[in-house]
Write a structure and sequence with these properties.
Blueprint (H helix, E strand, L loop, with lengths): L18 E3 L5 E3 L9 H5 L6 E3 L2 E5 L6 H5 L12 H14 L1
Length: 97
């Protein structure tokens, strides 16, 4: 399963401007602005934007750390990086394909 790398490319397709980047670089969906069009679900290059029958809004990783705490092997960690560093890695990887 792929995880969100917070590249922010989904922000470009959100006509409601409900997808925003926080100061720490995390890309989040503002549930108060989201209209549930699901455009971001089909656009996400990593396929990590999800939808569920029970809710109209898409959802994704928000770097809350729950998976890190729940991992029984301690194999996950949250690492703070500069936003520019994230963009560099994303664009570099996309160019390799």
């Amino acid at each position: 399963m792929e995880v969100c790398n917070h590249c922010g490319l989904c922000m470009d397709v959100c006509q409601a401007q409900a997808i925003k980047r926080l100061a720490n670089g995390t890309v989040v969906i503002d549930k108060n602005l989201c209209v549930g069009c699901q455009a971001c679900v089909g656009f996400c290059p990593r396929g990590v934007m999800r939808k569920a029958r029970e809710i109209i809004m898409p959802f994704k990783c928000i770097s809350c750390g729950s998976c890190v705490r729940a991992c029984p092997n301690g194999a996950l960690e949250l690492v703070e990086v500069e936003v520019e560093d994230v963009r560099e890695v994303v664009y570099h990887k996309q160019g390799e394909d």
